[in-house]
Amino acid sequence: MQYIKKRDGRIVEFNKAKIIDAICKSFKEVDGEISEYAIQKADNIANFIAEKVNNTNDLLTVEEIQDYIENGLMSLKHKNVARAYIHYRQQRTYARENTVEKTVEEIVRGTNEYWNGENSNKNPQLATTQRDYIAGAISTDLTKRRLLPQDVVEAHELGILHFHDMDYYVQPIHNCDLINLEDMLQNGTVISEVGIDKPHKFSTACNIATQIIAQVASSQYGGQSISLAHLSPFVKETRQKFRKEYPELSDESIEKLVQSDIEAGVQTLQYQIVTLMTTNGQAPFITVYMNINEVEEQEREDLAKVIEEVLKQRIQGVKNNKGVHITPAFPKLIYTLTANNTYEGTKYFYLTELAAKCSAKRLVPDYISEKQMLQLKGDVYTCMGCRSFLTPDRFTDNGIGNIAKAKNYIPGQHKYYGRFNQGVVTLNLVDLACSSGKDIDKFWQLFEERTELCHKALQCRHKELLGTKSDIAPILWQHGALARLDKGEIIDDLLYHGYSTISLGYAGLYECVKYMTGYSHTDKEGKPLALAIMQFMNDKCKSWKAKEDIDYSVYGTPIESVTYRFAKCLQKRFGKIKDVTDHDYITNSYHVNVREPIDAFTKIKFESEFQALSPGGAISYVEVPDMQKNISAVITLIQFMYENIIYAELNSKSDYCQKCGFDGEIQIKGTTGKYYWECPNCGNTDQNTLNVARRTCGYIGTNFWNQGRTEEIRDRVCHVD
User: Which of 231, 260, 281, 461 sits CB 3.0–4.6 Å from 129 for a disulfide?
Assistant: First the structure.
């Protein structure tokens, strides 16, 4: 009699029939039936294993037997059947180990490495965050076991691609968007079944806006953007209201009252946003857009007053629990550089000077170049909260009409507010390169296969949203944030025609080119391949779009926690390869590697060419020291951005030590895997009493990060000027 060892240590009788049954089921999943050929192959493998069991001195384990099955199927070139068996094995593992229960327990105890570093703006110790993560763990478990095709799940597990936001996939909700705040404020909305009429003061409009922001954030999983151009018309409403109430006051006195209302409204925006807690377990991921040319010329003075106040209050910061003003993570600010504000002598240059001071002190705003965006996109508009850009409006040009039923729709005028992104799947270019073994023909063959696998995964995202009724999120689909559909109406029309986008992300262009050529993509020897890779992905998106009427676009993904996960997967699959897989992170999108010395101007100029090939969104940054006493240099850099790149930002430092009151740069100390932050004044290393703000993949993070992101922050501080 033959015996094997179970996972729990029990010794049980070997049963060859179970092996045959499992293999036959795998053949059936692929072929639709169990043929005589399948039975024969299953019997051959089972006999081989039986012989191993019989001739091995030590008892074989169940894991070893399953490995023999996989190897046997692979050696017979039944790769699809092998994959089906692997999926079966994974399902049994999930069921046996009760993975989700273990994960939930680790989340509550604070011992789960992935969830602890998943988002640098979520504190994993808080009950609200843990509640979101627990729901996310259940969604992720269901998604892997039941909702996604097995080849997509396997590729995700291996780090070949990343299927973003599995923790929300179980629900038909979308990624990020541009809120049609103008429609909601001017024409009324409904929040929690309470009708909200048009406000008549700027401060009231700001208060309503924060309620809208919180509701929207709780109905989706990605970032959202609003425009100050939708709030500034209420400055005029405020002025008219005060003139009616106080006819005896002079214009000068009225303007003082108006300014006080602007200050109160902006303070409401800033403080309510950072103190609100959404169902996602964090403050709303909100971007505030500032473009002086987004309104008609006669309205610009009021918009300028609002922009000025937003920048002034952000420079001041918000108070921490010690009463000291520190840098908040949200709202994210984006400032548009225009022909009438970029250079000294232009009408609104004073706003750009203020923006430069704000960047030096508080890491925001980011900058969009009107000049470059008009050249490349034809319109100027903000990105969504996570740098994702909508594709230029083609549905209006094609006469599709007001499919969102917005009340502020203007026939023939391009529309951006009210549009959204369906979701993201990111391709690991480093794994692609390493899998090719430097064989360029195999590289392009694998590229074809893996982009099509990403396409399959993106189709899953799209199909998950198909058939969704507007009732699932009334604030989005019925009351104006994205549309004003009827109750029970499905959102399908908004998924086609270019109204929404869906994103093919990519990561690790530097490491990919480095492995294939031996050169960085900044070198003349490596750049041609880098550009060819970018063009290949754009051509893929173009072909999918033409066939399906869905706006696929190439996206420089902000892979905050994924950069670490990808790195670990690469090391497991390929070992540590110098300058390719030998760090705990891989390079975000097309960026110059952080360990490569380069000056700010050269970096911006170089990356601008690749940003143009990331039409679905991307951001470039430059790392700078404390620039608060050198604002003229900041302005010079900003002006260079205006002339050369669509979207960029400066990474400065803005920290505070609660123990000694130090207000400066907190230092990163330690070695790989053991990084920590230390106050240079008093030596404090208690992260709970250190307020550290750093960019992580374009976001400002104010908690602490996983080791991969911390290592990258450390490296870029040391190597990028």
Answer: 281
